[in-house]
Each structure stands twice: as structure tokens, then as C-alpha cells.
Amino acid sequence: MPNPKDTPNPYGHPVYKNWARQSPEERVKGLMKAHGTAADEPRFSDLLYHPTEGSLPVNLVSVTKTSPTTASAIFTFTIPAYYTNGWLNMHGAAQTLIYDNLTTLALAPISKPGFWMLGGVSRVLDVKFLRPAGVGEKVTVEVEVVHVGRAAASLRGVMKDGKGRVLSTCEHDKSNIDPEVAKL
């Protein structure tokens, strides 16, 4: 087992500089910008935040910290062919990836060292698909922190088409992985 003293400080990443003074919007935008900036470690979900051919650049519309333990955010994007199935409708796996990332970003406004700053890990990610969304369609995703405690969080998301019709819903339960600040 590694010695905790040899583990680098996870809060040392530049995105966390001045975290306590950042607005909820600055925190979410900072995480979106920082995601996938390690060129030697590209990830599939990097396509959510960085424009490339066939990517899905997600735009933050608003973010609100409603209490010390609840927050919500709204994002939009236009569906590229890369995220569709053989019928040019957004693939269910793509929707699940989007929910995984965007619901986690809803934790940023309420986080602090030792309390959800690292986003946690998924325990359950349940997506219900209600209607298709085609390539080129503008989509809105509303996400919120329903409940958060020291060890577990309950998040929710709703994806809507340009007419406001619900495309899918998501319930996302997470476990906190932040080390205790005193142990760093």
C-alpha cells in the first residue's frame, strides 16, 4: 500500500487555485477548460469540452448555488454525427457519458477541499430514454445536486430538445473520494 505522504496533493492542480474565492460559474468553467488538457492522456469525454471536428462542445448557460449543499446548472449543445447511432439519433451511451460529466460538474459550486472537490466516483447512473434526438438538434441539459453528504451525493439530470420536450432523465449517485484535508 502506498505511503499517503508520497501521494501528491490532489488539490494542487491549477484549476483549484483560489477555489474558495471563485464564483460557481468560474468553478464550472474552469473544470470544463481544464478537462483533457493533458495532451498525453486524451479521453473520450474530452470531446465534450474542446471543439474539434465531430466534437460536442458543451456550453454553460447558467449555474446556481442554491444552498451550501445544493446547486444546479444548465448546459446546451448541438448533436454532432459522432454521438449518433445508425439512425442518426443521439446514442444512449453518448447521453449517459454526457450525464456522467455534467451532473458531476453540478458539484463544483458546493465543493471545498475534502468535500466533493474531486467529483467523486459513480455508484449508480440510471438513464431513462424517452424520445430520440437527431443529429444537428440543439439540446439543453439541466442538472442539479439533490442531496449531498460527507460520503454520498444524489444528482439528477434532464435532457430536453429545442421544443422543451424531455428526451431522457438521469439519476446519478456518487461516492466521495476526496482525502481528508488534515491527511494531506
Question: Brief overview, please?
Answer:
Helices cover 14% and strands 31% of the residues. With 184 residues, the chain is of the alpha+beta class. It has a single domain (4-183), classed as Hotdog Thioesterase (Thiol Ester Dehydrase, Chain A, Roll), CATH 3.10.129.
What does this structure look like?
This is Thioesterase domain-containing protein. It comes from Aureobasidium pullulans (Black yeast). One of its GO terms (molecular function) is fatty acyl-CoA hydrolase activity. The chain is of the alpha+beta class and 184 residues long. It has one domain (4-183): Thiol Ester Dehydrase, Chain A. It is 14% helix and 31% strand. It contains 2 helices and 6 strands; from the N terminus they run αββαββββ. It has helices at 24-34, 92-105; strands at 59-67, 70-78, 121-129, 138-148, 152-160, 166-175.
Please indicate the percent range of residues in DSSP E strands (runs of 2 or more).
25-35%
What is the 3D form? globular
The CATH homologous superfamily is named Hotdog Thioesterase
Strand order of the largest sheet: 1-2-4-5-6-3
Low-pLDDT runs: 1-5
What gap, in angstroms, lies between the N and C termini?
Answer: 16 Å
**Rg:** 17 Å
Tally of DSSP helical segments: 2
The overall pLDDT average reads: 87
In CATH, the topology is named Thiol Ester Dehydrase, Chain A
Structural class: alpha+beta
Q: Indicate the CATH class.
A: Alpha Beta
Counted beta strands: 6
Number of domains: 1
